[in-house]
Write a structure and sequence with these properties.
By secondary structure, the protein is mainly alpha-helical. The chain has helices at 2-28, 33-36, 38-60, 65-87, 93-128.
């Protein structure tokens, strides 16, 4: 189960990489912004769903509190992405500054998802490691 969680987080990390591409695609696409960012928004919803599922998956893996906490933080940051997008007001300097946090928060999500997968990998390696002999 721990290996499944690690792979799950790797899939989320890959989707986050695709998300960056889709943001760039939306920025240079021709047409209405709603249409240009449609794929970015759809992928973001998929990331939110997978991030939500990662929390009970980490708990079922019985890996301890760190992977569960990291999965929860990643999900919280994904929700924050939507809040940032809703709060920022197009055409204003303050709105653009707030929306700039959208990109920074996206990088934080990638870092946390990567750490969660890395934590699962380390825990799995520790469980498989031979125990030192007692004297």
């Amino acid at each position: 189960m721990l290996n499944l969680f690690r792979i799950w987080m790797a899939v989320i990390s890959a989707l986050l990489g695709v998300q960056i591409f889709l943001a760039g695609y939306g920025a240079i696409a021709v047409g209405a912004p709603a249409e240009a960012y449609e794929l970015h928004i759809m992928n973001g919803r998929l990331i939110a769903l997978l991030s939500l599922v990662s929390i009970p998956l980490a708990a079922l893996a019985r890996a301890g509190g760190k992977p569960v906490a990291l999965a929860s933080i990643a999900f919280g940051l994904v929700i924050l992405q939507s809040v940032i997008a809703l709060v920022s007001v197009d055409g204003t300097v303050v709105g653009q500054l707030i929306f700039g946090l959208h990109a920074v928060n996206g990088l934080l999500i990638m870092a946390v998802a990567g750490r969660a997968g890395g934590a699962a990998k380390r825990i799995r390696a520790d469980r498989g490691a031979p125990q030192p002999a007692e004297a």
